[in-house]
Amino acid sequence: MQKKYVDLLELQTRLKMGIESLFPDRIWVRAEISGISRRQNGHCYLELCQNDGTMVSAKTRAVIWASRWNYIDQTFRAITGSSLDSGMEILARVQVGFHPVYGLSLTIDEIDPEFTLGANERQRQLTIERLTREGLLNLQKRLRLPLLPYSLAVISAGNAAGYGDFCRHLKDNEYGFVFDVHLFEALMQGESAPASIMAAFEAILSSDVRYDAVLIMRGGGSELDLACFDDYDLAVTIARCPVPVFTAIGHEKDHHVADMVASAYVKTPTALADLFLDCYIAEDQRLASYESRLLMAFSNRIANMSSSLELLGSRILAASKGRAQDALHAIDLLAMGIFRNADRRISDSDHLQDRLLDRIQHSAVIRADKASAGVDKLEARIFSGTRNALQEAMSFLLKVEMSIEANDPRNILRKGFVLALDRNGIKIESAGGTRVGDRVQMMFADGTIKCGVVEIDRRSNIPGEEEASPTALPDVGS
Description:
The structure is a single chain. By secondary structure, the protein is α/β, with parallel strands linked by helices. It folds into 4 domains: 8-111, CATH 2.40.50.140; 132-267, Rossmann fold (3-Layer(aba) Sandwich); 304-407; 411-472, no CATH class. The chain is 48% helix and 19% strand. It has 10 helices and 15 strands. Helix 2 (66-80) crosses helix 3, helix 5 (193-206) runs parallel beside helix 6 (232-240) and helix 8 packs antiparallel against helix 9 (365-406).
């Protein structure tokens, strides 16, 4: 028996006619965007779905033609502050269509941004705009936290897990930093929460304690639970608080009006504890750097002083050697001058003698003898003068060497003299600079004796100077 059938095209054509006759006009459809793709030709293709909590219960394709995309996108972004994206729930006006090849599709020509934004989000945007007009949005940003905040006022529920995490992280820190934390309990969700939090602010500002910061904390929650932190009156209270306010009321995707008007906000109470610990850690590191710089400066100063002392000792030794060399050089020059003078005088004497001999050849033997005797006397005087000059130069050199040797402290010790030093190794200039009981050092050539002052005789050892009565130390035993 031959079965009755229709071909696929006929089936699809009947479906197309039925669907288009069932939905001849555009309708509004609520759905969630599960996928979105913008093509180079300007068209935007979407996948719409509906979830029943655990699984997708409906799914279809949709398109926004390029002729409508710019208008829809600009309008949506102007109202919501963001573009269409996956995960958004939208209310779209669509024309239902069916194609024999591509199946069911929806053509979107309008999207209601207000639906996506929601009543709460719309009110949140109006609150932000109002705070901006009134100049309150950035008022807290002008306040400055003390360098080392100590007194902290916390607004939270007493049994909140976030508050417990904050206290443990802050007080059990590895550095041993100490904080003074006071809890002001308040409701942290629901319609009564803004009034309860504002009452806590009033209690903080009327307290006798001058707090360094006010902390509002809660460990996150659902969007409806946290809607109270978008309240206008609460935002005004935070903005006008004279003490810096910090918030930690949500998780990663939450950002409320209270966060925006606060001096600063973080995501979790533990992160808020880290913020205050970082203040002390930064100051501790700054002090440690000062300590290192001071130690380096003292080490450099001591090294420079040691170098200066070594340089001074080298200069004194070099000066002593230089003076001795200068003296020897002067003696050499003097001797050379004496010898040159003697040679010249002898030469002149010989020349004069030759001339006289020529002139007095006819003189008598007596005058020749006298002349010869005169020459002998002159030579004797010349040699005598040379010998005396050399002796004087050698005597001067000897005095210089003796003076250098006499001024050497080691020679003074070798002669039996004693150098008196205090307990720090500094030379004692007079008996008046010591007291009974002082520890002193007596430096000899062969060693040093460390002893104590038991008696001071202030009578001068130089005749003619005033004498003072001796000072004795009572017998303290050996």
